[in-house]
Amino acid sequence: MEHSIKQVTAAMIAYDAGDPMRIQHFLKVHAFARLIGVEEGLDEHTQSVLEAAALVHDIGIHPAEAKYGSSAGKYQEELGPAEAEKLLTGLGWPEADIRRISFLVGHHHTYTAIDGPDYQILVEADFLVNLYEDGLPPEAQRHAYETIFQTESGKKLCRELYPAVCE
Ligand SMILES: [Fe+2]
Question: What average pLDDT does the structure give for the chain?
Fold first, then answer.
């Protein structure tokens, strides 16, 4: 499965070519997701679904900007799943995995529908990166720590990265 993750990484870098900010974003989200998944003891299959989802989670941004002139979460969630499906089908991923990964792409800004560890960890990994990249104020960081983070390793990472707000 490691081979497939490498393929998804390469395909996503090619997809976002010329946009180093987005490329660095998903590489960081993938690194945190992988780490949390391993520390939480995910089985190999769930881990690979999580890692692929982390790599493609923002694939809807460019199509959303092209169609709506906006990368707002709801447009990404609308346009991302079909793009993810196309990319993963091209790489020969199993259909059931593609369905789950596309679902995660279409819901990664929806925090009320979390229905599994892959979903939970994807959201936490995205927050670990966005709290820094978006320069959110301390109150927003604390709110995220208190309401979003559920896994022990995600909470620990949040405290280690943002000790001033995550106590
Ligand atoms: Fe993201």
Answer: 94
